[in-house]
Amino acid sequence: MALLPRRFLCFLLAHHFITATACQEADYGWMIRHYCLKQFQLSMEGIGQRLWCDWDETVGTYGELTNCTALIAERLDCYWPNRLVDEFFVAVHKQYFRNCAPSGRALHDPPNSVLCPFIDIQYGSEE
After folding, report:
1. pLDDT at 88 over 80
2. Where does the secretion signal sit in this chain (predicted)?
3. Peptide bond preceding 117: is omega within 30 degrees of 0, i.e. cis?
């Protein structure tokens, strides 16, 4: 059996469980935690905590999380973004990105090929 894209799987699961015609905040909160967040957690575990601050590694997973919350909001006839999704993303950021630089890039020294010439220049100029 071929694997379905996560977005499509999220859509199928959401469609299966949604019967309300007006936004039910309790249902929305439950669904984004149990469908969107669970998939995000699995993806982030696969990336590995060491790379969580590397935006190039996490942007796709983060985008899927965002799309999942928006899709469920649409299917539940909820506004998006809304208070629940704002609180949800604040919690996600506190758990996964609290130690990251504001730019989304991991802080680290540049490669030695870049760093060494600057070190040589600084120490060479003092002599």
Report:
1. yes
2. 1-23
3. no
